[in-house]
Amino acid sequence: MSHPHTMFQLTGRGHAPASLSNATLLIIDAQEEYRSGVLQLPGLDAALEEIAKLLAGARALGSSIIHIRHMGIPGGLLDPSGPRGGHLPEVAPLPGEVVVQKRLPNAFAGTELHDRLQAMGHLDLIVCGFMSHSSVSSTVRACKDYGYRCTLVDAACATRDLPTAEGGVIAAADMHRAEMIALADNFATLVARASSLL
């Protein structure tokens, strides 16, 4: 059996990583729930360092930035009126930076994200945030439907341990790796770290 290829390789439709100077940085759900709430992520701190590097680089270049904030359940997960729904302070938006609020994993669903991106004028997006298997995955997949080219930063995303149908557990690192591989097949150009784009 020959070595497998990605759909990008087979179709010739892959693309080079975006440049931070000519792309929109999309930060998905960098919220307190993932640090101190029920959805604590084992890889949060390392991923947050990478997101902070991307954010600092984008700000220094004057690049377009969009922060996505999930509006969760009042009194529950990602509580929109409580601290767990707030932005993590290390990567919180500055005054004037765009914040798009969503209620579903896919950041395009029922939001103005597409209109905001169109106004910014970039087809290239650099994507990072939480959780790899959920909001990051669904948003990156939707980007293809809207005609955007995604560059996904592996080390700037993270997820959590998940239960399996057999009653076991898939570790967060394994779930994250599988999702990154799946997205790199046909939806995003994958880069290892923020330093690849700075």
Q: Within the largest sheet, what's the order of strands?
A: 3-2-1-4-5-8
Reported by name, the CATH topology is Rossmann fold
Question: In the residues, how many domains can be counted?
Answer: 1
Secondary-structure-derived class? alpha/beta
Q: Report the top-level CATH class.
A: Alpha Beta
CATH homologous superfamily descriptor? Isochorismatase-like
- Describe the global form: globular
Q: Over all CA atoms, what is the radius of gyration?
A: 16 Å
Give the uncertain stretches in residue-range form: none
Give me the CATH architecture, please.
3-Layer(aba) Sandwich
The percent of residues in helical segments reads 25-40%
Note the total helix count.
6
Spell out the helices and strands N to C.
Answer: HEHHEEHEHEEEHE
| Overall pLDDT | 97
The share of residues in extended strands comes to 15-25%
Q: Could you give the count of β-strands? A: 8
Describe the main β-sheet briefly: 6 strands, parallel
Strands, helices and their partners?
Elements: H1 7-11, E1 24-28, H2 33-36, H3 44-61, E2 64-70, E3 98-102, H4 113-120, E4 124-130, H5 132-146, E5 149-158, E6 162-163, E7 169-170, H6 172-186, E8 188-191
Parallel strand pairs: 1-2, 1-4, 2-3, 4-5, 5-8
Antiparallel strand pairs: 6-7
Commentary on this structure:
With 198 residues, the protein is α/β, with parallel strands linked by helices. It has one domain: Isochorismatase-like (Rossmann fold, 3-Layer(aba) Sandwich). It is built from 6 helices and 8 strands. It has helices at 7-11, 33-36, 44-61, 113-120, 132-146, 172-186, and strands at residues 24-28, 64-70, 98-102, 124-130, 149-158, 162-163, 169-170, 188-191. Helix 5 (132-146) links the parallel strand 4 (124-130) and strand 5. The longest helix has 18 residues, at 44-61. The model has no long low-confidence stretch (mean pLDDT 97).
